[in-house]
Amino acid sequence: MHAQALLKSTLQGATGYLQADLRDPGVILRRAAEVLDFGQPAAVMLPGVLHLIQDSETRAASWPG
Known about the structure:
Layout: H1 2-6, H2 25-32
């Protein structure tokens, strides 16, 4: 399966997967910190995802920043 092939970590970097609710960023950031060094530049890419979240489902106050 292509997804399993993509989840292979290499010397150049680690790859991880988590299943979480996008509306609960705290969980996502805690789990991401297990793989990512947030002292270094990082990016989050969500193509084809954010338009699926309704305005009534957002918890803007919980987002950091």
